[in-house]
Amino acid sequence: MAASPLTATGSAIFSKKCELGGSISSSSPSLVAHRCRKHSLNKILAVMAPSRTPQRPPSTTGSVKHAMTMTEKILARASERSQLEPGENVWVNVDVLMTHDVCGPGTIGIFKREFGENAKVWDREKIVIIPDHYIFTSDERANRNVDILRDFCLEQNIKYFYDIKDLGNFKANPDYKGVCHVALAQEGHCRPGEVLLGTDSHTCNAGAFGQFSSGIGNTDAGFVMGTGKLLLKVPPTLRFILDGEMPSYLLAKDLILQIIGEITVAGATYKSMEFLGSTVESLSMEERMTLCNMVVEAGGKNGVVPADKTTFKYLEDKTSVEYQPVYSDENARFIQDYKFDVSKLEPLVAKPHSPDNRALARECKDVKIDRVYIGSCTGGKTEDFMAAAKVFLASGKKVKVPTFLVPATQKVWVDLYGLPVAGSGGKTCSQIFEEAGCDTPTSPSCGACLGGPRDTYARMNEPQVCVSTTNRNFHGRMGHKDGQIYLASPYTAAASALTGFVTDPREFLQ
Amino acid sequence: MATAVPPKTICSSHLPRTSILTRRNSTSNAHIPTLPSPLKSLTLTPRRSLLTPLFAAADTEADLASFGSTTTFHGFCYVVGNNIDTDQIIPAEHLTLVPSKPDEYRKLGSLAFVGLPTASYPVPFVNPGENSSRFSVIIGGDNFGCGSSREHAPVAIGASGARVVVAESYARIFFRNCVATGEVYPVETEEVGIWKECSTGDIVTVDLVGNHLINHTKGKDYKLKPIGDAGPVIEAGGIFAYARKTGMISSTAA
What we know:
The structure holds 2 protein chains of 2 kinds.
Chain A: H1 3-14, H2 70-78, E1 89-93, E2 96-100, H3 104-115, E3 127-130, H4 140-156, E4 160-161, H5 180-186, E5 195-198, E6 212-215, H6 218-227, E7 229-233, E8 237-243, H7 252-263, E9 272-276, H8 278-282, H9 285-293, E10 302-304, H10 309-315, E11 336-341, E12 348-350, E13 358-360, E14 371-375, H11 376-379, H12 382-395, E15 403-406, H13 410-418, H14 429-436, E16 465-468, E17 484-488, H15 490-499, H16 506-509
Parallel strand pairs in A: 2-3, 2-5, 3-4, 5-6, 8-9, 8-11, 9-10, 14-15, 14-16, 16-17
Antiparallel strand pairs in A: 1-7, 12-13, 12-17
Helix pairs in contact in A: 3-6, 7-9, 12-14, 12-15
Chain B: E1 8-9, H1 19-27, H2 40-51, E2 71-79, H3 86-89, H4 102-110, E3 135-139, H5 152-159, E4 164-167, H6 172-181, E5 185-188, H7 194-197, E6 203-207, E7 212-215, E8 220-223, H8 230-236, H9 239-245
Parallel strand pairs in B: 1-2, 2-3, 3-4, 4-5
Antiparallel strand pairs in B: 2-6, 6-7, 7-8
């Protein structure tokens, strides 16, 4: 008897709107305000500025009656809508789906379970599969997972599969790339205006190209694999205006650590982060990637940098696919503006165990370290190594702690051995690293950024202190649960390697 | 007919509970009469059925109707703090396990929360050598599930036998993965700091119809935010199961 009022209540609750995932992403975005840490960084302030209209080209998507942000416009087009509002749930057509060896096998398992053993993927040219996480390991299950990817790609005739078979010598695998986010960019899969989803939280990296890109789980990816669509909630946008000349001792990593320290690790949950201003315009594509790569560390759904001539130039020899960049309308609604004068910033670190645990590098000069790690999607690109080499070159000294170098991709590795470092009289990064006493650059992969199998190169198997150019300093992230990770720019990482303490790179760069 | 659709108690649909837990929970019946009164009219009946056959398998049919039925969880809680990232829920070295393979799914359950620092969390979530946890509810703080998008995280929690997390807020991808897989109910609290008032091992009830959390050990009652439209999706077993059940996609695979 008592069950009837219950059922009635229940149906009232649930009959409101029962569409699939109507609120899949509607958990409260309410979390931001109460976590503001007290930072001792009074000099560096993010000032909320009144809305300012940056100089932007007009919309390229026709009607501007309903002003939209870049992210809203991309999702509007992908959902075949003329306009939409933050908070709406829309079915989005996906341009590229990326998966890798850690989440690919599970995604494939779900795809087969739900669509059938003989099902075909929605578009064999729009799925990019990149083994990158656990490659150079004797872990049998890890090796098996790459085999699962290979079998699936053969079966489905997947066009872009960056395979590796000879684990003894990565160079014997011309198709092998390495870290997926960097490979996606280098291989021309990142294009302005498009929607890229991937089974990796750092998929937001591709926002550097002025596209919508975000990380999803295996189940969602299995759905996309079969249908080419996904239900997404349109995020509202936070705007970050970075102006001022970038000091020679700063890198994009400092900028994003500054921002995350300001808004906390949950400050952008369910939100888009748009980066603009004269500093952003001056950044290279790789630096823009560093900026967007870590938006997930602030909880962001995606990050975007408006495409410009730097973007178009980068893409020139990488893709023949036509793309259509979009830009925020002048009167688009941003839920908040943050303004930074970059010329006043100083080199930063994120102390253990949270990416928003911001401090000035110089404030941590007494922190003794055991090792330095330069690598990952965030900090293992060509320019990241060039930056580290610049510090080693300027110092002329040798490192005092083991310094591990893990190029993100095969292309980056080639650059380390081929490109001359500016001001070095023609030396390559690899020569400079050797002279400085670093470990030899190893095979490209995600490496020890996320710990990985026990035999992963440079995995932190002891409770040590590491300065790292990676993206996360959670407990156990690089292996040992009690390890301590200081996230830093390649400049700061190299400077710290030279002293054995967390070190402000100005000690060597000025 | 009113009794034809019994209020549904979801416990673990994946793993059998240990008999110890069942026994321990039934003793907690004693706490029930002290529940605050406003809730009684709504939930008295379900609570009885919830406590007696505590971990009896949920009625497997009747699920279409059960969108509106009770979903209640009862048992020991495991308490964690703010910003519990997915590396702590399931460290990356275990990501070689593929959740869609049944034996590896079970293994993931045995490893849930193994990444928590031992100094802060001396009680393991899953006892070494066991596949499932004796804790049925996880209570956490702000930004639960942040970091990596690994779906292994909600899967590990679900595979351990726990079906509900109660936290102040969730990281986006984790929340979505909970719903997409149907592994875990990610429920939000109305107030902050509940995790500071609860202790691992407290006996709690989470009532998703009355939207409250009762800590029987401490004699406290907390409001929860409604799970909303995500509830039926999780109850169905994830987005694919929900879409089939509601006729959005055809019921059999090709």
